[in-house]
Records
---
Amino acid sequence: MTRTKRIGAFSVRPMDPSPGREDGRSDAELVHAWVTHPRSAFWMMGDARLEDVEREYTAIAAHPHHDAFIGLHDGRPAFLMERYDPTEVELKGLYEAEPGDIGMHFLVAPPENPVHGFTLAVITTVMETLFADPGVRRVVVEPDVTNSAVHALNKAVGFEAIREITKPEKQALLSACTREQFEAATTGADR
């Protein structure tokens, strides 16, 4: 769990895409509302049906090199995090992998009441979660080249752009952040 000075406590748990949890709302329903929101255009699931989200995240849950997590803020679902092996998923054959690389996606739920610094706290939590695994040496990402907001967030936590790459669904900016770059960028940060 990560605790910030101003914003609260953050944690992650595995996503369960199964319909009908005991609280009445499935993780797939939550994520469907998030990925189809206009603010989530770069997630490229704006027209997805609930069944599409269930199918996508059931496949991720079954995949040996890809995981999905629900991020919690003060115990309430607030973001989606995906972790993947970039030599097997998303970036396979598109870049020069290094030992200890891990890939990541994250999506913040559309806020009811925006809080300054919230998304930075989320990406910091995501990075801390990934680097909690001692085998992870570097996080790689491939956001759309036109997603300037996420490029700024990535830079704030230590990512450096490597180069543009062409993926089937988009032109992406391959970027990477080592454990040392992350620690240097976030040490002493007022969170």
---
Amino acid sequence: MLEPLRQGLPPLNLAAASDAASCALPARYEAVREARQFTRKTLEQWNLSDRFDDVCLVVSELVTNALRHALPAGARLTPQEPPVRLHLLRWEERLVCAVRDPSDDSPVTRDSEDFSAESGRGLFLVDSFSDGWGWHPMAGALSGKVVWALFRLPRPAEEAAPGV
């Protein structure tokens, strides 16, 4: 699922991910709050609480976009297969937030000069608060796509080079 995350990024050894967590999110807007709560709990467990504000904003935008734009209109969704899933993966110096949804359509960034608009700036915020973002279609039997955002983390103090 995450192989395309490597495109355009420094090499990531997926087997070396030190932590990973995911949660299924139902097709309702309360799922955004659930995603924020899951993110807070996960980042606390990983001692990354200081990154919560930026990561939470990005997670909220990615989940909101999935719920608003990626779910089929009027589709009957079964509780056995929640339509949206949030993945958090951490390497020593990187954190990736990835949201999987059932749509094959690519995310669309809007160029809006109306800064008072109440919507349409989600991917602009993702781009502004993360160190990079992208998306890729799912492979194999899974349909849909994954939209991801990357956060660089500071090097652990004990491994930082002197004078850095």
---
Amino acid sequence: MAAPEDVTESKLLLAEYDRIKEEQKARIGFRDNLLYFTLAASTAVLAITVQNRRAQLLLAVPVICLVLGWTYVVNDEKISAIGRYIREQLGPRLAELSGARGAVFGWEIYHREDTSRTTRKRLQTAVDHFTYLALPMTCLIAFWSSRAVDPLLLIVSIVQTLALGMLGWQFLHYAER
């Protein structure tokens, strides 16, 4: 067990930094893999739908995109929250304790000042919207255009459309500028 004089506020804050950066790194990997998994799962459903000629199966794509899209949004928000916490809370506390003149954890600020950041963020939002909204909406339109529409499935598809609209709003709401 460490002696009380070995446990300082600075050491605790640095340990916290290490842990939350590990969490951020894990969340980034998970979030990025969600995009690939969504595309793979949707492609598999589309292949099965075409193979079996059952338009009802198209309703699985919005479910996939809603569940994985929401998980993507939640992870993306936590990744951003970790960065904000480091910039706004942890860094300033450590700077104060250490007497540092400049920003502590400068990368957390520096990488956000890139002149291409806004363009990249907009393009990523477009990719997210294509994957999690345009793809399932295309499937819904294909379903509505088929002969497989019955009243219950029509209601399901309308609920899915509303849920996709809410997901789209969440992507825009949490998109960091």
---
Amino acid sequence: MLEPLRQGLPPVDPTAVSGSASCALPARFEAVRGARSFTRSTLSQWGLDERFDDVALVVSELVTNALRHALPDDPRPCGGEQPESAAVRLHLMRWSTRLVCAVRDPSEDRPGGSFAPERTDENCDLESGRGLFLVDSYSDSWGWHPLAGRLTGKVVWALFLLRD
């Protein structure tokens, strides 16, 4: 999980990793509230309460995008259980100088389609379609990569730089 994330980020000393946490999210929009709660408790454990507002906004947008755009219309096969490969997962990883929020989903499609961070007067007041613009605005950087191996889908991540 971490190796592809490192490819899009500045070099990280593996010995500086100080924490990681992950949770599976149900394929329901109520999962966004659970993702924020998980983020609050994790950041609190790491002594990063002051970063909660920005991180929670980004987590909310990434999870909402995964639930809205990356899940199949009927994610449950016969029998009612959601397959592991179709799960949405939230990962929080902390190093001494950075925090990464990553959301894994089963879609291999590029997030946001033709997202461009520039806003125009014509589209700045739309009710939807601002998620990745907010991610871009509130995080220090963001990106995505397809998964390899037995997992299919992608990971969309956002980086927050931390002060010492």
